[in-house]
Amino acid sequence: MVRFKNRYVLCEVVSEDPRCRQCIEDRALGLAVRDAITRVHGDYGLACCSISFTVKYLNAYTGTVLLRCRKDSYRLLCSALPFVRYLESRGQRYPCFLNTLHVGGTIRTCQKFLIEYNRTQLLRLLQNCTNEEERQCIQKSLLSCSLTEEQSQSGDEDDDDDGTE
Amino acid sequence: QNILTVYFLVGYSAVALNHVIDFKEKKQEITKPVSPSELFPSLPIVQGTSKRIKVLTRLTLVVSDPSHCNLLRSTSANIRLYDIIAVFPKTEKLFHIACTTLDVDLVCINVTEKLPFYFRRPPVNMAIDRGIYFELLYTPAIKDSTMRRYTISNAISLMQICKGKNIVISSAAERPLELRGPYDVANLGLLFGLSEGEAKAAVSTNCRATMLHGETRKSACGVVYTVKKPRKVEEEETAVPACKKAKTQA
Fold first, then answer.
1. For a FRET experiment, which of A96, A114, B211, B218 has its CA 20 to 30 Å from that of A3?
2. pLDDT tens digit string along A149-162?
3. Most confident residue range from A8-12, A143-147, B39-43
4. Planar angle of CA A118, A119, A121, nearest 5 degrees
5. Residue A109: which pLDDT band, with cuts at 50, 70 and 90?
6. In-domain check, residue B186
7. Taken in order B126, B129, B130, B132, is the CA torsion positive or negative?
8. Residue B57: per-residue pLDDT
9. What sections of the sequence does the record tag as coiled-coil (chain B) (predicted)?
């Protein structure tokens, strides 16, 4: 069967500045990643990786990013991701770094991994929780984690926690 | 302390705090290492498992003269308190001495400037047999472009000699934003010429082996060999205090 095979790289944006998360946008992130690839692999690397390069999914609350690239050039992309040092948007520079979580062949596998990862993150937040009400919120969302309704749930809960913390 | 919290967030299970001793200045005393319990009242738990994170202490000696190595052989009590000992040789002779005779766990490879010497096969092979690991830093590569070139060229020349065995990649991060997650560091290993399995090992199994090497170096100062004799009970009793004595002397 002839079809184009892609690789989906799941990353998390880690930053010290809380304002950085709010201005993550797909264009800024794409530019930052392309810039890093140019610095590390040069023109050849940029050309190879940008054949089918897009930012597929972006979650500003948790800082989760899903990138897509061709299977032949995903190594170039993955080896250049540690060199992303800052995100630039609207004239402001925010220092941050990308933490690669998972590389998968389809969006569905990445989604499954993300559900498990969010579940562990919620468990960790549960331990650091001080408020009883937050604790119950998190427990409720943990119990209702599933493939279809996970994304909105975990997005809401993290938003709550970020807001109240 | 901020840096450590980011490390734990990203998913490392053991971190070593480095203390560098440079011999260019006049005689320096080796100070006692900072105890990790001073930094954290209770160590947080590793992501994904239920064990606590280990914080180790590490000493790096920057040697440019053979007389500096005498410090390692001295019985100064403070050296024994460090978990891992690393040496940073500046000349070829010192590299040879470090690989063959010195009692260290790690040999640091300079990444910030062009190596003044080429690696040769015999000392590298002896180091691999002895269980000594070569260490590469990756934080200078992230910060600066010229350092990146030196890092990659030094790393690749090392790979060509040692075939990718016994490599540990570590960060010398001074700020929380300079460190990278373990998956990313393994991908950096690909840039240095390692194969994918070797790169993952450079972050996980080789580091663990270095920790164990440090522990054996700390504890096995002497081996007590007990022989079964007819009066077995008394023999064991006398053997036990002897072990304790050897440990406290060391």
1. A114
2. 444 444 434 433 33
3. A8-12
4. 60
5. very high
6. yes
7. positive
8. 76
9. none
Least confident of B73-77, B97-101, B135-139, B213-217: B73-77
DSSP 8-state assignment for residue A65 = E
Is B180 a domain residue? yes
CA-nearest of B131, B109, B103 to B62 is B109
CA-to-CA distance for B159 and A41, rounded, in angstroms? 20
Residue A16, min C-alpha distance to chain B (Å): 8
Could you tell me which residue, A28 or A152, shows the higher pLDDT?
Answer: A28
On the CB side of A92, how many CA atoms lie within 13 Å of its CA? 11
Cα(B139)–Cα(B173) distance, integer angstroms: 6
Of A16, A75, A120, which is closest to B177 when you measure between CB atoms? A16
B88: nearest Cα among B35, B129, B135: B135
User: Is B237 inside a domain boundary?
Assistant: no
CA angle A79, A25, A108 (to 5 degrees): 65
CA distance B188 to chain A (A): 6
Domain that holds residue B86: 3-218
Looking at the structure of chain B, the number of domains it has is 1
CA B192 – CA B135 distance, rounded (Å)? 12
Residue numbers of B between 150 and 209 with CB closer than 8 Å to A: 176-177, 179-181, 183-185, 187-188, 190-191
Asked if residue B104 lies in contact with residue B132, where contact means CB atoms within 8 angstroms, the answer is yes
Using alpha carbons, select from A58, A39, A59, A57 the residue that is nearest to residue A49: A39
Asked if residue B134 lies in contact with residue B106, where contact means CB atoms within 8 angstroms, the answer is yes
Third-level CATH fold of A1-105: Alpha-Beta Plaits (3.30.70)
Beta carbons within 10 angstroms of residue B213's beta carbon: 19
Tokens found for residue A58? 């972006």
